[in-house]
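I wish you would study the pair of lines that follows with an eye to the fold:

===
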Amino acid sequence: MSSFRRAFWRYPLFQIPLMFLSLCLIAALLCWLLGLGRPKVAVAIALDLSTSTYGTQFNAPGTIMYQEVQAVQSYLAENAQLRNANQVQVLGFGGVVQSLTGNEFKTDSKQVSDELTQALQNPDLPQLVANNTTDINAAIQKGTEALSGVSDRCRELLLVTDGGANVSPNVVSNAVARKVKVNAIVVGADSPELKLTAFTTGGIYASGETSNLQRFFTERFFTRFNSNRQWIILWLGAAWIALMWTLTLIFDKFIFQGLFKLPMNLSGQLSLGNALFWSVLTPIIIWQIWKTLDLPFFSSC
């Protein structure tokens, strides 16, 4: 690089990256504050209503089933705060799958909550879902079919059960073909087959005690379904690259020439090399962060 004949901020090599830096920071700020880039989501929540989830009294306080319902209510409360709310339908299953909130997905969280409460008060519900057995395949299949009727939204099936079960490969293949992500929560023992199902379909898996159900629903699944973090990370990464190019002349003049007394040609090479280095490394770092956080980008879902 040649010596500076005017102030460094008057050079295009400083001005152009500075403009890109400003635009990237503004875009990241807008994504964070306004939630730009959040996907449109449809969620089918399948609750295990078999006898093992409540014992002798249906939906008794303190039982697994009761905690499942409270977790759904927490999810709906969070959903009500969204500008573009998720479309939600709640299913109950034992040996048979029944819709607990009508046959349509709805964005009105209060309506879904009221319909769920009303359905659970039906004394015939335990018999309607054949509560003496648990058919995970039927729950996944029914949820997949329901979500298949939803267009222009990401399709998420959130299944809650208190035990592991065999999952048919055909059911999993059908979910993949219809672009339905199967997310599973197992209360108690781990379930390798449900974990594999979640991994295969692009969903997430969690297992733990009943006390964790509400936290799983609101902090993990709701946050994941409605995340725009990939856009924030993308714009911050682009801002970092723009910053490195913005600092090129500053590094050249004040650091390498001024502080280290390097010759101009070597100083210029090091300054440009630094910007090129971060231009290559930053996308790799962003990609690794996306994979760690399980945040898709090329698909809006």
User: Anything to note?
Assistant: Residues 264-293 form the longest helix (30 residues). The chain is about 55% helix and 15% strand.
